[in-house]
Amino acid sequence: MDKISVIVSCYNEEESLPLFYKEMERVREKDFKDVDFEYIFVDDGSKDKTLEEIKELKNKDEKVKFISFSRNFGKEAAMLAGLEAANGDYITLMDADLQDPPALLRQMYDLIKNEGYDCIGTRRVTRKGEPPIRSFFARVFYKLINKMSDIEMVDGARDYRLMTKQMVKAIISLKEYNRYSKGLFSFVGFKTKWLEYENIERVAGETKWSFWKLLKYAIEGITAFSTTPLILCSVIGIVFCLISFLMIIVIISRTLMFGDPTSGWPSLVCIIFLVSGIQLFSLGIVGQYLSKTYLEVKQRPIYIIRETNINEL
Ligand code: UDP
Ligand code: MG
User: Fold this and answer.
1) What is the value of pTM for the model shown?
2) Helix, strand, or coil here: 163?
3) Which domain covers residue 248, as residue numbers?
4) Structure confidence by residue, pLDDT tens digits, 116-133
5) Residue 123 and residue 174: Cα distance in Å, rounded?
6) Pair (284, 163) in one structural domain
7) CA of residue 3 to ligand 1 center, whole Å
8) Is the pLDDT of residue 263 over 80?
9) C-alpha to C-alpha distances, 283 to 88, 240, 241, 276, nearest whole angstrom
10) Domain for residue 222, yes or no?
11) How many domains does the chain have?
């Protein structure tokens, strides 16, 4: 009998978690009579009663395993911990807020089982219920990153996916500290099919992503999978050198022909501002890559476990 590992990353999800478990169990009992299950709940350093909720589930259901972090390490770290702990034949990643409908799972399983795919991903085709400004920046981000990176990032792709253990093995072999999963999934390749669905709003609680957090995550994605910004800095530098070279020739010849009436202070100030602005901007981009490299080189653990019921960890 096949076994599916369901990995659920939870950060302050005391309200959603029981609802998630109920719905997932309903689907499992209805659609998965022929498949074994294990649940891996990863408590990402929650400050509310999430861990207590998980332990309660563990006590009444032996399929439930859990990992609890020593602090909040972020969803990427939680997903990695789950993937490393999973031992099913097929592994799925889900959010605790039911935005990833468990009802799709059977269809995903059938596709992966019968049609030779390694991974069934999901993407939402609408962003209903999301602030319009957030949707707008998300669209811009996907346009940008797909232009800059060789790796394809699908707009609206969720982390909700069902994968074979072979693909999961490939993903956990990527040991980088700055993890941007959407890129990592795409990087490892394998045959992926996308299922589309309409956006579903979270059942309870609030989103953990502020605009600022999302912006940082977007920069993470770009620096992890593209070096185009660095090339851009060089190109801007070259263009400015060429312009200034032309200007030097023009100014020298003008002075030789017409003398030097020492004016042009305002234009000078403008030029200094523009050029030093561009310099700082470029330095910032270089700094981004340097800081990522710095963090990688330190080789800190991606997460630290405080408590778990999985023996191997
Ligand atoms: N999450 C997490 N660690 C974090 C932030 C979020 O494990 O630092 C989990 C969260 O509990 C949820 C999932 O990641 O199960 C997605 O978070 P959320 O629903 O807030 O994001 P959104 O759906 O709004 O993008
Ligand atoms: Mg959500």
Assistant:
1) 0.78
2) strand
3) 228-298
4) 899 999 988 877 777 888
5) 24
6) no
7) 25
8) no
9) 46, 15, 17, 10
10) no
11) 2
